[in-house]
Amino acid sequence: MAVPPPRVNELEVRIKNLDPRHEGVRIAQLSDIHVGNMTPASHVRAAVEVANAAKPDLVMLTGDYVCWRRHEAEMVADQLAGLRAKRVLAVLGNHDYFTWGSGVASALRRNGYEVLRNVTTFSDVNGAPLALVGVDDPVTRHDDLDAAFKGSHGTKIVLCHAPDHGPMLAERGADLVLSGHTHGGQIYFPGITDRLMKKIGLNFRRGFFQLGDTTLYVTPGVGFSGITRRIGEGTTAEVAVLTLRAA
Question: If 51 and its partner were Cys, which of 8, 28, 129, 166 is the partner (CB 3.0–4.6 Å)?
Answer without folding.
Answer: 28
